[in-house]
């Protein structure tokens, strides 16, 4: 096995593939070998599409050899959260209810990835239907955190985060209704991008909450997320919320730095509304100082208390999720796991008037953030108030919700979580960057700058390396 | 033992089939949603109502033959 491929980014792999210094087949074989060697400890993949992936890699290799290079994803293995429909291949939602669900066609996003030449490596673990939790009562075990397998990945895009962090696959897809890309990205130390609502088609992604669902990329770096967005973002007439903002050069700001940008800090979110752990706070402040030293200006911004964003988001998401799942919850509740069934069932108790009121408040919050962002280019806060918690605890049901990222599901603006440091115990800490609608390129630029300035991208989970050494 | 008032809410929604083991956790989740609803409940002016969106696009038509 080519021993260093797992530590390369999509950008680095793509450059080598383009000049035929690296074969997509060799890369795909290396990913498959690494999944087989390590994933027994991580459970990040539900299904490895070995033969299909190798066939796609051979096709990519032939196309590139013939001079038909399709772009940065050509020949790059990608994992799909197992709520992305794949034609002829089971798409389970990590649920016993959909264990035999085989879609007839690909999700729009999967089709776009294939058209960009990506190699679909397999389907990754998720919290049940993107809501359930790290459950042990489902047909597949929950994904484990590569930085410490006794710890949770968070979710719901749990397998995608674990697989990318462990270097099993260079990029993956996630979905984000209340932070489900950015939360696991934060706890697993990778980059996760929730695009502006409507930029990435939801057609063929198992739905949870129609007005809050977002598809998006999960990669080792912000730059790689930008490269995946070049393929994933496209207007889709089959998604009523699909936007058509015109071309966005998602990677255009990569490497451009931070000088001259205005950064707003929503300090009350993490100092008084839901106080952060000291290590997270210290890393956040160190990041702000480093960004200022690179020429950014920083000012505090005051929004509604985080609890208002949380209230609006939870009322909307639980109501919309129950509406989707009600027939199955009534007919076959035993086919769900405990966490999923309870969380979905809770939506039955939200009054119609309270749902409508939450939607009204959402409009207020969208306007509030738009007003605040007239004076700043991005808003930042820690993604999570803490580092990864123990696997097996219901991390989303505590009184202190660990994540702040839901605010940007409510407003729909682009948001990104990037690793900005490590705790004394060696666990990743993450920064959340939010932007104005359709300024995803700027959010990715800031995330890229943070990664470079804080120097976080050279450190990989040691556990995955020790497991690999044992396997060789 | 399920709280009698929560048991009544379960019956009102015809959800009494859910496993007994779920009910305490479900009651806690519902309480959090009740608190969320109460937190944002209050008067909203009529002038704000049009900020809510139901938006139509122009209809696509086939050309007349």
Your description of this structure?
The complex is a heterodimer of chains A (472) and B (65). Chain A is α/β, with parallel strands linked by helices. Chain A has a single domain, classed as Amidase signature (AS) domain (Amidase signature (AS) enzymes). In chain A, 40% of the residues lie in helices and 12% in strands. Chain A is built from 15 helices and eleven strands. Chain A has helices at 10-18, 24-42, 50-65, 108-115, 158-165, 182-188, 222-232, 267-273, 278-293, 306-331, 338-346, 352-372, 407-411, 440-454, 462-471; strands at 45-48, 77-81, 119-124, 171-175, 191-194, 215-219, 262-265, 297-300, 378-382, 415-422, 428-434. Chain A has an eleven-stranded mixed β-sheet, sandwiched between helices. In chain A, helix 4 (108-115) links the parallel strand 2 and strand 3. In chain A, helix 10 (306-331) crosses helix 11. Chain A is globular. The termini of chain A are close together. The model of chain A has no long low-confidence stretch (mean pLDDT 95). Chain B has 65 residues and is mainly alpha-helical. Chain B has a domain at 4-41. Chain B contains two helices and no strands. Chain B has helices at residues 4-12, 23-40. Chain A binds chain B through residues 307-308, 310-312, 314-315, 318, 330, 333-334, 338, 341-343, 345-351, 354, 357-361, 363-364, 367, 397, and chain B through 9, 13-15, 17-19, 21-22, 25-26, 28-30, 32-37, 39-41, 44, 48-49, 51-53.
């Amino acid at each position: 096995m080519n021993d260093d491929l797992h530590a390369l980014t999509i950008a680095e792999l793509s450059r080598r593939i383009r000049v035929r210094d690296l074969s997509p087949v060799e890369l795909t074989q290396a990913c498959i070998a690494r999944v087989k060697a390590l994933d027994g400890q991580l459970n990040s993949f539900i299904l490895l599409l070995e033969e299909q992936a190798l066939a796609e890699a051979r096709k990519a290799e032939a196309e590139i050899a013939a001079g038909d290079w399709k772009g940065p994803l050509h020949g790059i293995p990608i994992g799909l959260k197992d709520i992305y429909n794949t034609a002829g291949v089971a798409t389970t939602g990590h649920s016993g209810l959909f264990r035999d669900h085989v879609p007839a066609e690909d999700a729009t996003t999967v089709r776009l990835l294939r058209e960009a030449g990506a190699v679909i490596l397999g389907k990754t673990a998720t919290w049940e239907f993107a809501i359930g939790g790290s459950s042990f009562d489902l047909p597949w075990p929950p994904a484990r955190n590569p930085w410490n397998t006794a710890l949770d990945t968070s979710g719901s895009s749990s397998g995608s985060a674990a697989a990318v962090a462990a270097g099993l696959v260079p990029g993956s897809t996630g979905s984000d209704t209340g932070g489900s890309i950015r939360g696991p990205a934060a706890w697993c130390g990778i980059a996760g991008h929730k695009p502006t609502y409507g930029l990435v088609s939801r057609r063929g992604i198992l739905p949870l909450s129609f007005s809050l669902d977002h598809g998006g990329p999960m990669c080792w770096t912000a730059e790689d997320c930008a490269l995946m967005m070049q393929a994933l973002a496209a207007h889709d007439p089959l998604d009523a919320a699909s936007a058509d903002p015109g071309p966005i050069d998602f990677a255009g700001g990569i490497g451009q730095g931070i000088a001259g940008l205005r950064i707003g800090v929503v300090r009350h979110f993490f100092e008084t509304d839901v106080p952060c752990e000291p290590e997270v706070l210290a890393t956040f402040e160190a990041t702000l100082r480093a960004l200022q030293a690179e020429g950014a200006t920083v000012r505090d911004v005051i929004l509604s208390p985080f609890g208002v964003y949380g209230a609006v988001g939870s009322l909307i998401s639980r109501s919309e999720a129950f509406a989707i799942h009600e027939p199955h919850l009534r007919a076959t509740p035993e086919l769900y796991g405990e966490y999923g069934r309870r969380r979905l069932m809770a939506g039955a108790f939200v009054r119609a008037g309270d749902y409508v009121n939450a939607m009204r408040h959402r409009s207020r919050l969208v306007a509030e953030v738009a007003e605040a962002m007239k004076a700043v280019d991005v808003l930042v806060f820690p993604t999570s108030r803490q580092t990864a918690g123990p696997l097996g605890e219901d991390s989303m049901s505590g009184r202190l919700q660990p994540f702040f990222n839901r605010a940007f599901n409510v407003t729909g603006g682009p948001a990104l979580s990037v690793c900005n440091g490590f705790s004394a115990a060696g666990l990743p800490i993450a920064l959340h960057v939010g932007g104005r609608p359709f300024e995803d390129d700027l959010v990715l630029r800031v995330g890229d700058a943070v990664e470079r300035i804080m120097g976080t991208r050279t450190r990989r989970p040691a556990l995955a390396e020790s497991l690999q050494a044992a396997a060789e | 033992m399920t709280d009698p008032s929560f048991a009544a809410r379960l019956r009102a929604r015809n959800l009494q089939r859910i496993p007994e083991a779920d009910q305490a956790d479900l009651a806690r989740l519902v309480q959090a949603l009740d608190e969320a609803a109460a937190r944002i409940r209050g008067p909203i002016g009529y002038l704000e109502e049009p900020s809510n969106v139901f938006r139509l696009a122009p209809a696509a038509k086939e050309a007349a033959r």
